[in-house]
Amino acid sequence: MPCPTNRTPTNGLSVVECGTPSIGPASHGWADCFGLFYYFIFAKSHYLPKNHYLCRKHQTVIAKNMKIALIGYGKMGHMIEQIALERGHEIVCKIDVDNQEDFDSPAFASADVAIEFTNPTAAYANYLKAFSHHVKVVSGSTGWMKDHKEDVERLVREGHQTLFWASNFSIGVAIFSAVNKYLAQIMNQFPQYDVAMEETHHVHKLDAPSGTAITLAEDIVSRLDRKTAWKKGTCAWDDGHVDGSADHKPEELLINSVRHDEVPGIHTVSYDSEADCITISHSAHSRKGFALGAVLAAEFTLTHEGLLTTTDLFKF
Ligand SMILES: NC(=O)c1ccc[n+]([C@@H]2O[C@H](COP(=O)([O-])OP(=O)(O)OC[C@H]3O[C@@H](n4cnc5c(N)ncnc54)[C@H](O)[C@@H]3O)[C@@H](O)[C@H]2O)c1
Prior knowledge:
Layout: E1 15-16, H1 25-43, E2 52-55, E3 60-63, E4 67-71, H2 75-86, E5 90-95, H3 106-109, E6 113-116, H4 123-132, E7 136-139, H5 145-159, E8 163-165, H6 171-187, E9 194-201, H7 211-221, E10 229-237, E11 242-244, E12 252-259, E13 266-272, E14 277-283, H8 288-301, E15 307-308, H9 310-313
Parallel strand pairs: 1-2, 4-5, 4-6, 6-7, 7-8, 8-15, 9-12, 10-12
Antiparallel strand pairs: 2-3, 9-13, 10-11, 13-14
Residues 71-77, 95-97, 117-119, 122, 126, 140-142, 166-169, 205, 287, 290 line the site of nicotinamide-adenine-dinucleotide (NAD).
């Protein structure tokens, strides 16, 4: 059950119960990661930054009443709006393809953070437009990095902009990613196992392999000496046709894709040997976990700067 929002100022502090939605205790864990820091630095000295409140129940600091702009008002945009409102934030501007002029509106410029979920070809231009108004961006759009990674890194570094980007915002994937890294380290000692990956998503997804699969693959490649790069493999569709090829060199980590129905996202890493097979898998039940993660990332971004990602939020 959500905590009711219930402000009672005491001792000069803004005190609320945090309104964390029923997605569960994990979301308090996220808030606590960075909240405890603020609790000791700010709450103990009777000062909280703008938009931050002390949660009476959890003795931690949370961001509330943020002004959020949405860039991309599709499936993710709608779900993010719902969760942001539940958490006490205000949506000041919604931008999609047919109202691009709103990037130049006072409402957009008033946003504390813009949350961007569009597509691989639109994302980079959207970051530039938001940065030109000095609005921090949280983005989950995937597929843009191969063309614009260096430009974005430079803009953030030299232009003093802020981008929180994650190929996957769900807490489950953050945990899965930590397990994936640890497993790759262990497997470095066991050359008899060959590793491969498969990701499955809905048929509307424009990029393959998924951004999450690429991040997981890069984490493996940087830990497993016998793999030097990942390689895009096949993409199998519901109508039976298969794009691409599974050909790869032994030192390449193959990522195969499946595009099926309305699947929100499944990622599987398999280590296969003559004797046995070790498989780890994450399966999202809906988009809700991604949307909550994006809103929590926006709350984090309010008080952080530079190039940020989920490992800044979770300290496993
Ligand atoms: N990182 C994550 O956790 C995560 C999770 C889910 C989806 N995604 C990614 O987020 C993106 C959006 O997913 P979705 O399911 O909401 O897709 P969607 O197709 O439902 O919505 C995308 C929206 O963006 C709009 N759009 C396109 N170009 C635009 C532009 N230039 N400016 C503003 N809006 C524009 C479209 O009109 C559409 O309404 C995809 O790249 C997807 O892969 C990431």
